[in-house]
Amino acid sequence: MVTVKRVVTLKDCRELSSRLRSEDRKEVRAFQPNIPLAQALHDCVQMSYKTYAVMEEGVGCIAIFGMRKCEPPTGKPFGVPWLLCSDELFKSGCKKFIKESKEYLKEVTEDFYYYFNYVAATNLKAHRWLSWMGFHINKEVTRTVNGVSFYPFIYLRNDNV
Q: How many domains does the chain have?
């Protein structure tokens, strides 16, 4: 059985770091190459104002997700959504969470109308999930960080989500 809790702990980050998907690990390492993986995950959580842990009974933390706030020097603040997971998230027992993730999208996107982040160009499972969720991935623009290519993705909230 899979449940979602509203607060991510360091213990959750440690559990997930031991089973993080290779594509997600590559993304984290591109931005934080020199610190332990569990600490990098916890730093992401600490920089966010909304965080959630996906827990599987008998396994532990299989995913974390959340929202950071970005306040650029000019322009309006926007949200930075993120999700990091293990392969367990895509197994049959987690179909319920995948289906319910659109409900969580409503919850994490209630504060802004514009959301922006990057996804590794090779993270195809993330591309499919982001597209299904309503995000637009711009595959014509690439940003490279420490040898990893990323595509920007955006989400414009509407009140009919």
A: 1
